[in-house]
Amino acid sequence: xDRESTAIPLSPARRSSWTxxxxxxxxxxxxxxxxxxxLAVLCTTFAVAVALRLYGLADxxxxxxxxxxxxxxxxxxxxNARPFYFLIQRALLELLPxxxxxLRLPALAFGLAGVWATWALxxxxxxxxxxxxxxxxxxxxxxxxxxxxxxRYWSLVYLLAVILYGLLPRAIDADRPRPYLAALAIxxxxxxxxxxxxxxxxxxxxxxxxxxxxxxxEWHAPSRRAWRLLWxxxxxxxxxxxxxxxxxxxxxxxxxGYSRGLLVTLRLAPxxxxxxxxxxxxxxxxxxxxxxxxxxxxxxxxAAALLGGATCTTIxxxxxxxxxxxxxxxxxxxxxxxxxxxxxxxxxGAALEGADARIVPGAAVAVLATGVLPGTIxxxxxxxxxDARPAYAYIEAERARGHDAPVYGSALExxxxxxxxxxxxxxxxxxxxxxxxxxxSGGFWLIGFYRREGMVLASEAIEAWxxxxxxxxxxxxxxxxxxxxxxxxLHWCGHDPTAAGMAVR
Length: 505
Fold this sequence. Notes:
By secondary structure, the chain is an alpha/beta fold. The protein is about 60% helix and about 5% strand.
């Protein structure tokens, strides 16, 4: 794709903005002009990214974490390990209506910026074709689309990660104050968005120092200037922050509820591969290994990307042994996969001649898209969310008919947002309270959120008790083409619901 002869200049690429210069995503010299075909592909890719992220933005139901964002944005005095996004959200809540669309607007903006930054990083690291392939992969990625439509900090984490991956190699090569200070600022903002931002950074930096720019595999330590302006200040800030939390008894901010057990730990890596797409995950590993083995000029990036992904996955697996860890925590390594795949596609096409060189990018994108699209289409079906709104409406209709009973369930914040008038009681981890409630009231509603592995936001004891003592009266789920399930089931716990005149759907 880079060999087209008819070219037209693209002024934003020719005169990089100050943000891309700060991020290190702009090439050191004048970048190659885009051909008409390449420009059309880039514009189409970005249009697809916009359309996929706008679809359902105002209609998808809020998830519990999104409602957390809403309430946490009004509790800025409360200690939190990830305050940066909440500060942004609060500023916008003061100006915009409080609806699903406007609550998700910052995530959308950061998500679209992340698509553009991925294109810029791929172009600067490998070339135009790599940038186009990487941008297309993130544009149709169900994981990134979800993050861009989720009122939480994940699309910001992705964007800051892309910026950092473009900036760090340039900072190490130039060994000048400005890139180091810029990298320090990005790392601080990233960690303040979510601490998992730093997990791939460890391996990425090791790769940059294990392989030289020439491709020679030899260790070169950070310079004195790097220690003085970047790693030293970063370590001092980290130690001071950790010490302050320890001294005030607030290390709990780094824990996320209860450990979820060995089985969940073992499912974590496959779940992340499923989220990014098994084909893309395999292609990223294969591309990195091929570039490292056969392309000395690309060996440093390949080593940094592979080590970044490996350290992130390893740290998450270890963390899952002591606290709850979720697949979203691996999002900051996603740009490494997309750019590495794009680089391999570009290099493979450049190694061929004639028609083969033009076929390779298109064929590679077609294969990758085939692997990704079932997840993308599934996201467009249900927003990758549990929809409890029909359950709330059903209970309110039954209450209007005189069937008054308490409501048990998880996600108290969702009920507060969508149905504040319901007599809602949040589930605990043991089932004894449910047994007592059944004896006292004679019957109650229970709203269950289900995925393929069973009821979520509840213990196994509660799920077993529900199967033994409750009747399903309503199920809400939309069809998906992938392995995931997002089902909300409304249970009546007590006598036969049909005997009480309740409609069972």
